[in-house]
Specification:
Its cofactor is Mg(2+). By secondary structure, this protein is of the alpha/beta class. 44% of the residues lie in helices and 13% in strands.
Length: 258
């Protein structure tokens, strides 16, 4: 794939990076919600029910378009300001805490991995790549989802946006993951499903594979995604990985983190 132009979070034009330029691949960074699993329906259900209870929007249930515009991929602090601009911050925080509690109660029954996830994770692990989960989700949510997906031992690092100076769409969480893994952005790939997450990965200097789990393809491309896939069975992804594999077989591998 050739180079294209994208816009970073600081408004400057930057080159859209190609996966083929990553060889030798050193690390893989994954968002969680919508990337490892299709969790948006669970979040949507919890928000819709609790917003009805507080009389949001005059008692009219939020739509999926409302969810995508105001909630999906965003950090809870920003969601609170968007949904409740006139509320006391503590009241908004309490609502969001209640929503996360409801979400966690539903996850064990409803959570499903994105198709092909474990196939990709095996590919990543078999090649000794460094790996991190990087999310705007609260840590209890992230740890629960990773556990249910059977990936607790897969990730070397878990980075949570609220524990960084700035959450996505700023690059801080991805920059922290690179630092903790001692990995180079020149040899690291990011997997994301949201506009804010893709912007964060691009701003951190890495190519991003965008998953069209729920968000419109145009928005993901405009955010700077290098490649769009529906899931991890997509032939375009495996063709790109095969190109990287060819380089790995011809050269000495990077030091591995097992």
């Amino acid at each position: 794939m050739g180079r294209d132009m994208s816009i970073s979070t600081n408004g400057q034009t930057s080159e859209r990076k190609s996966l083929s330029e990553l060889a030798p691949l050193e690390a893989a960074l994954f968002d969680i919600d919508g990337t490892l699993c299709d969790s948006d329906p669970i979040h949507f259900h919890a928000f819709r029910e609790l917003l009805l209870e507080v009389g949001y929007n005059n008692g009219v249930p939020i739509t999926e378009d409302d969810f995508v515009e105001k909630i999906s991929g965003k950090h809870n602090d920003d969601i609170g300001k968007t949904l409740f601009p006139d509320w006391d911050p503590d009241k908004a925080a309490k609502f969001l805490d209640d929503k996360e509690t409801m979400f966690r109660s539903l996850v064990p029954q409803w959570l499903k991995a994105v198709s092909g996830l474990h196939k990709l994770c095996k590919w990543v692990k078999d090649r000794g790549l460094k790996r991190a989960a990087v999310t705007n989700a609260p840590r209890p949510n992230a740890e629960l989802m990773i556990s249910i997906l059977g990936l607790t031992d897969f990730f070397h690092v878990l980075v949570v946006g609220s524990e960084c100076e700035r959450a996505k769409p700023f690059p801080d969480p991805y920059l922290r993951a690179l630092k903790e893994l001692n990995a180079s952005p020149e040899h690291t790939v990011v997997f994301e499903d949201s506009v804010s997450g893709i912007k964060a990965g691009v701003a951190a200097g890495m190519p991003v594979v965008g998953l069209t789990t729920r968000n419109p393809e145009k928005l993901l491309m405009d955010a700077g995604a290098s490649l769009l896939i529906k899931d991890y069975e997509n032939p375009k992804l495996w063709a790109a990985l095969e190109e990287i594999e060819k380089f790995l077989k011809r050269n000495e591998p990077f030091a591995q983190l097992n």
